[in-house]
Amino acid sequence: MLPFEGVKVIEFAQFVAAPICGRVLAEWGAEVIKIESLTGDHNREQGLINGMPIEEDNDPTMDSTSVNKRFVSINARSQEGVAVIHRLLETADVFLTNYRVQVLESLGLDWPALHRKYPGLVWARVTGFGEEGPDKDEPGYDTVSCFARGGISGTWYPKGTEPLIPMAAFGDNITGMMLAGGVSAALYRKARTGEGDKVSISLFHVGIFGNSWATMATEFHKDDPEPPYPQSRAQATNPGNIAYPSADRWIQFGCPVWINYYDKIMKCIGREDLVGNAELNDLETIQKNNKIVELEDIIGNEMRKRPAAEWLKIFKEAGVPVQPCATFDDIVVDEQAWAAKALFKAKTIGGQEHIYVNIPVRLACVGDPTETMRMAQLIGEDTRQVLRENGYTNQQIDEMASKKAIRVRN
Predict the structure, then answer these.
(1) Residue 330: in which H helix or E strand, if any?
(2) Please, which residues bridge with residue 8 across strands?
(3) What is the pLDDT of residues 206-235, one digit of tens each?
(4) Secondary-structure class of domain 8-209+336-407 per CATH
(5) Which of the residues 78, 98, 133, 243 could staple to 252 if both were Cys, CB 3.0 to 4.6 A apart?
C-alpha cells in the first residue's frame, strides 16, 4: 500500500514549486487532480528556457511537474467553473495552490473560507515572500524570490565578477519537495485528530534557509572592512572546501575537518616534506596566520600537473573526498546517477522517449515509481471523467463546456 492511497488532492497552481509538491504526493499514492485554465498551465511554455520541446503531446518540462496527475480544465473566471472547484473540494483532503491571496479570496478559496467550510481540509500554499510583512503580496518567482532576495545571486559568484545566471526551477524544485513534507505532517495530524491545517512555504525563506550559516555569520563580521561574500579564492576560509584546477577540469574537495585530511592531501600531491607541518595542518591556525592562499597555491600548483582522472584515482585510494565538477552532460552519462535511480527514461503521451529526473526522497513501499508513471496529459484530458465521478451528468458537463466554463476532450 502506498502512503497516500485514498487521499484526494486538488492542485490549483501553476509553474513549478506547488506542482512539484503535487507530483510528490501523486507518486506516493494520492489522487491529484490538477486544475488548469482553458489554455493550460504556463509551465507548458517553460521548456523554451532550456531548448526543450513544448508540443502538446511532447513537453518534458510539463511532464516533470505532472507525474500521475489527472488533468481537469476549468475557467475559474466563470461562476460555474468556481462552483466545480468547490464541488471537487467537498471530498478533498488537500488543497494545493500558489495563487496570491487576493485571487483566492475572490474565489472563496482562501484559508479562512475553506477552513470554515471544510474543517478537515489541509490547505497548502507556496508564496514568493511569505504570508506576512510589507512584501507578502509581491509577485514571486524562483529567480527573484529565492535566488535574488534569498541571497544566492548576490553571493554565489567570484568576487569582482557578475552575479550568476539563476538555474531555472532550482529553488522551485527544492521548495516543492519541502512543501510535500509539510503536507505529509498535516495529513498525519489530520488522521489523528480529523482537523485540517494551513501549510505554507515561501521561495524567499527557502533561499535564506539554504544560506543559513552565512546569514547567521553576518553578526560576527560587522567590523570587517568588507563583507565575506561574495568571495574571491583569497578569502576562502578552508582550503579543503574549494575546487582546484587539474590539467583538464576542476575538482571539488570536501574536507571540512582540515586536520583529518591535511597529511593525506600532502602525500597525494607529492609534498611529503609538508606532512605534519603544524603551521599548515590546523584550520584555526592557518586562518589566524593568513596561510589559506599559500595552501591553495601549494595544492593548485601540483594539481595542474595531472589530468582529473589520475587525481580522482589517487585521492580515492587515500580516502580523500573529492569529485569532478560535473556538467549536465556529465550527469546524464554518470553510471551512479542511473544506478541510484536519480535519472530515468520515459515516454511522453506522444511516444517520444526522454530523460527525466526522479524525486530525491525514496520510499521502499513505492518501489520503482517509473513502472507506473503517467506523464502530463492534454489540457482537459480527464475533465469529463473526474466530473462524472463527482456527481455531474454528461448533459451538465456538455452545457458547461459550451459556455466555456470547462474544457473537455471527449
Answers:
(1) helix 328-331
(2) 31
(3) 999 999 999 999 999 989 888 889 988 888
(4) alpha beta
(5) 243
